[in-house]
Design goal:
Blueprint: H1 13-31, H2 35-46, H3 51-58, H4 62-83
Length: 92
């Protein structure tokens, strides 16, 4: 069941358990990144900021933002492939 905001309504303990596990796995993936790389990824994907906006906030060049996001995604992809399972395995 979807709510008006497009998010799925949790209507069972199984759904809640699944969501908790998904967030645990995401936190685990993010924790493998360097602090600045993690911040850049979070600014991009949770705040939907452009590379330019992230560069302005962190006072770094746009190409550095792009490179760090690319490397962070590759690092997380490798981690997921090594684990061979979990929520994010299908995404990579």
């Amino acid at each position: 069941m979807l709510r008006r905001n497009g998010r799925r309504k949790l209507n069972s303990r199984g759904d809640l358990s699944f969501q908790k596990e998904k967030y645990r796995q995401l936190e685990s993936l993010l924790s493998t990144l360097k602090r600045e790389d993690r911040l850049i990824v979070l600014l991009k994907y949770t705040n939907d900021l452009s590379y330019e906006e992230i560069g302005d906030i962190l006072d770094i060049p746009v190409h550095t933002v792009a490179n760090k996001i690319h490397r962070a995604k590759n690092q997380m992809r490798k981690k997921v492939q090594q684990e061979k399972g979990g929520y994010f395995h299908e995404m990579f």
